[in-house]
Design goal:
- Helix content is 34%, strand content 25%.
- By secondary structure, it is α/β, with parallel strands linked by helices.
- Among the domains are: 187 residues, FAD/NAD(P)-binding domain (3-Layer(bba) Sandwich), CATH 3.50.50; 69 residues, no CATH class; 82 residues, no CATH class.
- The strands form 6 sheets. The protein has a 7-stranded mixed beta sheet, sandwiched between helices.
- A hairpin with a 2-residue loop joins strand 11 and strand 12.
- Helix 1 runs parallel beside helix 9 and helix 1 packs parallel to helix 15.
- The longest helix has 16 residues.
- Bound molecules: flavin-adenine dinucleotide.
- The site of flavin-adenine dinucleotide has 33 residues, from helix 1, strand 11, helix 14 and helix 15.
């Protein structure tokens, strides 16, 4: 039988979910082109000697039941929802561990709980006068909210007050994006933390206190506040590697080191995808009945040889890039003294260092670390591809990172036993630049009947894995149902239940 073929560009969560859904619901053959030598995209797990590194630390949590079930069908859950232990990570490998979130903000040489809590330690760290001024500025912003919430600064001030915004949100957000909060559209805040407020954070802290230990039911909790999540024993890449091998076993194909460079079109269909082998530069042509793309929109538009106006908008899309430095240390220090810490990650809200966030991989899963007596740390830097930081040599970046962690007294230089680093381009699609004109690109690509844009950079949405997966699920449903409109893919919203978004 002559099967139709769907060319899927990218083997991240979106592309792999699309392939899995095609195999499950159709007789269309998924053929994935992946530019990298491994699967998982931004959710891959990097290997360094006996240690594993998660890019950014991936919490697996979704308000979509479909996503939660899908994940736990691939790797067995450690606990039942009633809290009964079903699988033991010490004895089994294909396991989702249940984890408690622990994160803090390091600011002005003090550690603050994150989400911020109204506690004695918070008041002690701030001091009495600063605490009162934060409270008054919060009350003021609730009584007299700024009329316009178009930019992120006003969005934060209306929710937290000017004083708390300037203390905890401004520097970190500007480190992440490299521009002032006044230049960022509030749609970023609305998509990531739209319902977060001081009152919600306090209520959540109270609610947490009464919640049973293993209960994953956090649907009512603002996503940025969720306190429990599941996590593959060997990091997120373990899940996506498992999915990839299921796809191969089911008859799909994955071509590694193969970068899609050109999409040939006939009338309103894409008929072929040309791809280049990254090692040999050899070009291959793949016939396409359908094309599902997760590649960055800017590259897709270039590969389609789009009209100038579309290319101009695509070229104006902005991305933020990311460098992570892995350090193996024999102790972590607080104010210079060796101390055990239980945080998954720590936000570094200190303008004296460029460091944005510190991951403690041991606390995500002890199985990420080869030697359990050591700490395996990830120092995260936000930057722009080819800026001065990105362009430093690997060893210069590592030395810089070590000296920054030494400066804030969380390690001593002599504690470092091993180190590595990775550059991650296009880690964050930004909601500024030509983002406000994205709909023009969307209309252009949607007009190709057999072309489906899904995923994070594929749709230029600052999303989590669940959104990428749901966009893949809806795209495959549209193929099955021969639906010509693609608006339901663009309106996928994992914050509401999957069925609500489907109805839109
Ligand atoms: C620092 C950080 C922290 C995060 N934390 C979380 C979290 O806690 N929880 C969570 O759920 N999500 C988190 N995410 C988001 C998550 O990583 C993404 O939502 C998810 O990986 C997006 O999947 P995707 O398949 O859409 O895209 P990607 O993961 O970007 O995958 C796209 C794939 O396409 C490939 N590709 C690109 N261009 C081409 C081409 N021309 N030809 C062939 N292949 C190509 C790439 O190599 C890549 O493998 C985080 C992301 C970052 C950066």
């Amino acid at each position: 039988m002559n099967h139709k073929t769907a060319i899927i560009i990218g083997a991240g969560p979106a592309g792999l979910t699309a392939a899995e859904q095609l195999l499950k619901h159709t007789d269309i053959k998924p053929l994935i082109l992946e530019a990298d030598s491994m699967v998982g995209g931004l959710s891959k797990t990097l290997h360094y000697k006996n240690n594993r590194m998660d890019i950014g630390g991936h919490r697996f949590f979704s308000k979509s039941d479909w996503v939660m079930q899908w994940w736990m069908e691939k790797l067995a859950p450690e606990f039942s929802l009633e809290g009964v232990r079903l699988h033991d990570p010490e004895k089994e490998d294909s396991v989702f561990m249940f984890r408690d979130r622990s994160s803090r903000i390091f600011h002005n040489n003090h550690f603050f709980d994150y989400p911020v809590r109204l506690s004695w330690s918070t008041i002690r760290n701030f001091g009495f006068i600063k605490s009162v001024s934060i409270l008054l500025s919060y009350i003021y912003s609730r009584l007299f909210p700024l009329p316009s919430e178009e930019n992120l600064e006003n969005f934060f001030i209306n929710r937290f007050g000017k004083n708390l915004y300037e203390t905890f949100f401004k520097d970190y957000t500007e480190k992440v994006w490299g521009v002032k909060c006044t230049e960022i559209s509030s749609s970023w805040g609305k998509s990531r933390i739209k319902n977060l407020s001081i009152s919600k954070a306090i209520l959540n802290a109270l609610f947490l206190f009464f919640r049973t230990k293993r209960n994953m039911n956090q649907k009512e909790v603002e996503t940025s506040l969720i306190s429990k999540f599941i996590y593959p024993k060997f990091g997120p890449g373990q899940l996506w590697e498992q999915v990839a091998s299921d796809i191969i076993a089911g008859g799909g194909e994955i071509h590694y080191n193969t970068c899609a460079v050109k999409l040939n079109q006939h009338e309103n269909n894409v008929t072929e995808v040309l791809a280049k082998n990254n090692h040999t530069n050899e070009l291959f042509t793949f016939h396409a009945d359908y094309v599902i793309s997760t590649m960055p929109m800017v590259d897709l538009v270039r590969a389609m040889n789009a009209p100038d106006v579309i290319q101009e908008i695509a070229d104006g899309l902005v991305y933020r890039d990311f460098v992570v430095v892995g350090l193996l240390v024999d102790k972590v220090r607080v104010d210079g003294k060796a101390k055990k810490i239980k945080d998954n990650w720590i936000y570094i809200q200190e303008s004296s260092v460029k460091l944005g966030r510190l991951q403690i991989f041991n606390n995500w899963s002890p199985y990420l670390v080869g030697d359990s007596d050591k700490y395996w740390l990830g120092l995260e830097y936000f930057c722009n591809e080819n800026d001065a930081f990105w362009s430093m040599t690997d060893s210069e970046i590592i030395d810089f990172a070590i000296s920054e962690l030494h400066k804030i007294k969380m390690i001593d230089k002599a504690d470092v036993e091993d180190s590595t680093m990775y550059r991650i381009p296009k880690a964050y699609p930004a909601y500024f630049g030509s983002y406000s004109r994205l709909k023009t690109i969307q209309d252009y690509t949607d007009a190709y009947a057999n072309l489906f844009l899904i995923g994070r950079n594929g749709m230029h949405k600052y999303n989590n894995q669940d959104h990428s997966m749901l966009s893949a699920k809806v795209a495959v449903e549209n193929i099955v149902n021969k639906l010509s409109s693609k608006s339901n893919i663009w309106s996928v919203n994992p914050e509401s239940s999957y069925h609500e978004s489907k109805a839109e």
